Inverse folding.
């Protein structure tokens, strides 16, 4: 079974629309990382969250970690074609900060 | 910012041959480097964790003798796929964590391996 579940699996939105994607775990997320990936390329770091209730923003992207530290959401405001790609959440679910476990990723397409 | 260089970006090899993939941290020292494998539309699967100067720790189900990992310096880790077979074809990606103990994980650009 997948330790980190990402939803939805894929998403197509019209340019300018807002969207939210999620990352859920049955275990405590001691450190939660959001990355963006273009197919066949490396991962681009977006944000890292550690504390329950924490929220961070960068440009039009906002990420939150819930109080229980078992779910994170990523919100994009006024989406643009440049936001298209695969969004991966990775987390330390052991507490030892020794490695990251990843979800399957969410493929986002933005229609001009 | 932290940069990790991975080389080659793609490689095609014949069955039975070995392929080496390099992962270098360009502007920081990495005590720990990680090797992942990614299948299409799948998550990154951690293969092994390598620490400079010591043996790599492999995840369950990963063959140590097939995927040789060497972390000889604080800036370089290599993954060698030995006696490659078509089922080893995949996207391999490395990650490095700074020696300073920060929580950041920086990823390389990945290597597309095709075994024919």
């Amino acid at each position: 079974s997948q330790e980190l579940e990402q939803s939805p699996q894929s998403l197509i939105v019209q340019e300018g629309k807002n969207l939210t994607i999620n990352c859920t775990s049955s275990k405590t997320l001691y450190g939660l990382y959001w990355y963006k990936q273009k197919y066949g390329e490396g991962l681009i770091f977006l944000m890292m969250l550690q504390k329950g209730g924490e929220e961070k923003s960068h440009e039009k992207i906002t990420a939150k970690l819930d109080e229980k530290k078992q779910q994170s959401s990523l919100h994009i405001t006024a989406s643009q074609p440049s936001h298209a790609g695969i969004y991966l959440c990775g987390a330390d679910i052991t507490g030892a900060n020794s490695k990251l476990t990843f979800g399957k990723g969410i493929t986002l397409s933005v229609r001009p | 910012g932290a940069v990790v260089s991975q080389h080659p970006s793609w490689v095609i090899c014949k069955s039975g041959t070995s392929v080496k993939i390099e992962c270098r941290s360009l502007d920081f020292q990495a005590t720990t480097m990680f090797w992942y494998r990614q299948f299409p539309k799948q998550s990154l699967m951690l293969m092994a964790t390598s620490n400079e100067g010591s043996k790599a720790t492999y995840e369950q189900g990963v063959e140590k003798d097939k995927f040789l990992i060497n972390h000889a310096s604080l800036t370089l880790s290599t993954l060698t796929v030995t006696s490659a077979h078509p089922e080893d074809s995949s996207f391999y990606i490395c990650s490095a964590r700074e020696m300073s103990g920060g929580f950041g994980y920086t990823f390389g650009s990945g290597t597309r391996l095709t075994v024919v």
User: Anything to note?
Assistant: Chain A touches chain B through 24 residues (CB under 8 Å). Chain A has no helices and eleven strands. The first strand of chain A starts at residue 4 and ends at 7. The CA atoms of residues 62 and 93 of chain A lie 22 Å apart.
